[in-house]
Fold this protein.
Amino acid sequence: MAEAIIFVPCPDRSSPRHVVNYGALAVATALHSHGVKVRYIDGSRGRLSDVCRHIESELADCVFFGVSSFTAQVGEAAAVSDFVKSVRPDLPVIWGGIHASLLPEETVSDPSVDYVCVGEGDYTIVQFYDQLASGNPDMSQVNNLVYYRGDELVRTPVGPFYDMQQQTHLAWDLLDLPKYVVHNRYDGNCPSLGIPVARGCPHRCSFCVNVALKDLGYTHYRYRRPEHVEADLAYLKDRLGIGFSFIRDEVFFVNTDYSRSIAGVFARQGILWGANLRANYFKPGRLTEEFLREMRGLGMLNGAMGVESGSPRILADVVHKDITLEQVHHAMATMSAAGIRPFVSFVIGFPTETEAETRQTIDLAVALKRLNPATVVAGIYLLRPYPGAPIYDLCLEHGLTAPGSLREWGTLELTRQGGFEAGRMPWLRGRDGLYAVSEYTTTSLLDLDRSAGFLLNVLILLARARRVLGFYGLAWELAIQRHVRAASFRFRAIRRRLLGR
Ligand code: B12
Ligand code: SF4
């Protein structure tokens, strides 16, 4: 029987995928290391009614129910919190994760949420558990907490940022691990599972939540000890036979000495790897061709880079990306020369972005792919303006209609990529053809999606034809797809209301 549950909702029930939620795993690990019997319950496993049944069977001895939620997961997170409250009205429900951290007051005002953890939860969750287990809880002693005491909203002081050197291991076994292992042709065709080695990103991109959560440590770079990472890798290799692991940090190579020691760890374990990096890191004394050849020799296969835009103006004035297109080309050439496969991603649909600038981005994606056909275009994404990120205010100025409550966030119609529907962003009006390309561009820019159905592949082919012809008018396919998605959202909302889950 569980003493605590950490629940991770499914972001897209129409195509559930098993994705490790590293934040939830970190808090579950902290509890586990503290000797608490904790269950990590992944909402992506089975139907929602089965998930609820599983939760119900664990609730009897629980001291609290924890929820970890991105914005795209809020609808299901709220529905499950309602369910838990219907079974155990006395049980404290605490929310953490990115959405609650960005909008703590709105989140804690919901009747099914008692506490919100803002920012990192590794220390908070243990303090929270200890208070509840003491029988006479005083939540004012718990850092990073937001809650109501009567009508008064309490915000406890922010505690120290988590010391990553203390993270000796992750409690992987709390997950049904084999379910999370993927086989991807870009991962050396090996069984693969990602691993976090560091936290924080010192950069300032305007659409990123790290900047919004700066005061909570998200721009402060901290890393795990190489021997702890090695123990985790050895465990994953032994248990699951993984041969590839993507480093799930925001950005690697912040400190090249540290990166080198981590690369050595992967090489010792015989595990291939990939990591996120930035175009402006490719310069003398940092990411040179020689250094990357060394990394390749230590098993680095992939380097993922957020290029974001083909427009220098958008990059500099809107995204504050602090990279130039020259640096992007140089980074691509260096990675290619060193035998490392570049992964590139783009964002279109920024406020003030002209149609010509959007085309520049799509054209750049095509050009980079031509330069090195091994390049993977990880996505040409439509901007996802999430609250708290600096760009959010600019989006509001340009007419974004934002939800005003937790429940409203939960009913949002999200795109295939987990962002707002374009209809909420008035500056996108009349650009449907361009956005159809963003929705249906596959990773190689050429392939169909083998895991998708016939209809989706027709849309992918259409997007490809649009890109080749440079024709972005008459986007009937997007209009039909939007109607179908809106209908399916409405259907699911009605079913939730009728069935109570
Ligand atoms: C690694 C990563 C991924 C990985 C792993 C995803 C995962 N679920 O962990 C991959 C590549 C799979 C991924 C996919 C997606 N991601 Co992502 N991802 C990240 C990234 C870069 C780091 C997340 C992380 O591991 N952080 C380190 C951990 C330790 O920190 P943390 O998550 O904040 O967790 C701490 C606290 O929040 C708190 N906490 C968390 N849960 C709980 C629960 C309780 C009870 C308590 C008390 C505390 C608590 O304690 C944790 C430990 O200190 C973030 C950027 C960011 N800064 O968060 C984006 C980010 C989270 N991703 C984002 C998005 C949108 C997605 C996708 C929806 C994109 C897409 N459509 O494909 C998918 C969703 C996939 C899924 N099913 O979960 C957005 C979310 C924005 C939002 N407002 O919701 C972010 C913030 C990026 C951004 N746009 O700025 N992502
Ligand atoms: S480099 Fe990546 S993680 Fe860092 S601020 Fe920019 S978008 Fe966020």
